[in-house]
Amino acid sequence: MAQLSYIKMISAEIASVFDDLAQLRIAVFRAFPYLYEGSIDYEKEYLKVYVKSKNAFLFAVYDGSKMVGATTCLPLIDETSNVQEPFVNAGINLESVFYFGESILLPEYRGLGLGHRFFEEREAYAHNFETCKITCFCSVIRPENHQLKPADYQPLDPFWKKRGYQKELSLKSKFEWIDIGNQHSTQKEMIYWTKKVS
User: Cα(187)–Cα(120) distance, rounded to whole angstroms?
Assistant: First the structure.
């Protein structure tokens, strides 16, 4: 493993690493619980949300020239309507929330503290905005007896709780993507985790 290097990018700058980010998302999200059958074309369309937001943020990790980890965030007001919807329905001011997108890391680079670093970088960035009162992210809900759930699967709930996040049962969205082995996209229920900015 070479010396790891780190980059930070804002808004339109992120477009320069779309290929790296798309490939990393596809690789990491293919595993349970996301089971995502990704495509570069779909990814590039999805990632445009970061370019459109003048305050979107990317922190990425490289091993040599290869992106091995990345994390993103942006103001919730700049996200898509399906991400905003549960907060609107709950009467939460969108301008008070920062949404944390992916936090992805290839398996061989886990256990080095980078998961914590991802949260630290995003929270530090979000805290630059006086309007930010809440940081949040969402995770997919899968049945406990899902046939593709690995026997040694460990959910990240304890890690997220250690970071100060709590699961909000009243905040849920529906996302769509194609599961591995399938031909068509299906809806998945996503639940949000939130943390108040101190």
Answer: 31
Contact 140, 188 (CB under 8 A): yes
Residue type, 149: K
Pairwise CA distance, residues 157 & 191, whole Å: 12
Structure tokens at 4: 């790891």
CA 29 from centroid of its chain's CA atoms: 10
**pLDDT tens digits, 63-112:** 999 999 999 999 999 999 999 999 999 999 999 999 999 999 999 999 99
- pLDDT tens digits, one per residue of 110-125: 999 999 999 999 999 9
Q: What is the CATH number of domain 4-196?
A: 3.40.630.30
Please state the φ and ψ torsions of residue 170, each to the nearest 5 degrees: -90, -5
Q: Where along the chain do its domains lie?
A: 4-196
In the sheet with 134-140, reading across from the earlier edge strand, the strands are 4-10, 57-63, 66-75, 97-105, 134-140, 186-196, 166-177
Backbone torsions φ then ψ of 186, nearest 5 degrees: -135, 155
